[in-house]
Specification:
signal; 6 helices; 2 domains; about 15% strand; about 190 residues
Length: about 190
């Protein structure tokens, strides 16, 4: 009888340890595989601020996290003072329900084609659809800027659209490779 109780106790203890270890592993895997899009956004804005400061715009990244000369919209959780988010969703033809997170950084003035769109699809089934929306946005930017301002059209021609897992980025910018490098680094 003592052996049966000891064996049962050991079995319960072993199963408890295995279950706890499995929960810890799952937590670690989720943390290492999931990247907060806010962190990627912050790193992109820091890179952009460095470029803006290099061309003579000191303190381009304001204390509130905004970039001087740019608007920023949260496509999933817009604030009350962000009417652009609905406009961007409509223009892109995407639904916020398809996104885990999404942001747009765009030039405030309509003489600058800079536009960075950062998306995290809610699941794998939405990635292809979101990528198609980004390609349509590139077509729209191309149509606008090729007739409007030639120097801005050059930026549009160098646009980068990239997908990594459930993460997508759209970059129309003076130096798109620099922002692409930030995206790649954050999503290693």
């Amino acid at each position: 009888m003592k052996r049966l109780i000891s064996f049962s106790f050991m079995l319960v203890l072993l199963l408890t340890l295995v279950a706890c270890n499995k929960e810890e592993d799952n937590g670690k895997n989720k943390e290492s595989n999931a990247v907060a899009l806010d962190d990627v956004l912050t790193a992109l804005k820091e890179e952009m601020a460095t470029h803006l400061e290099d061309v003579g715009m000191p303190d381009a990244l304001k204390e509130d996290g905004s970039l001087d000369g740019y608007i920023q919209s949260d496509l999933v959780h817009p604030s009350e003072d962000d009417p652009q988010s609905a406009m961007f969703l409509e223009r892109l033809g995407i639904k916020s329900d398809d996104l885990e997170a999404g942001f747009v950084i765009a030039a405030m003035m309509n003489i600058n084609s800079d536009e960075i769109i950062l998306l995290q699809a809610k699941d794998d089934s939405k990635v292809e659809e979101l990528e198609a929306a980004l390609k349509k946005e590139l077509e729209a930017q191309t149509s606008t800027w090729e007739q409007y301002l030639p120097d801005q059209y050059e930026k549009v021609k160098n646009n980068i659209i990239k997908t990594k897992g459930n993460y997508l980025i759209y970059i129309t910018y003076e130096n798109p490779e620099a922002l692409e490098a930030v995206f790649d680094e954050k999503l290693k």
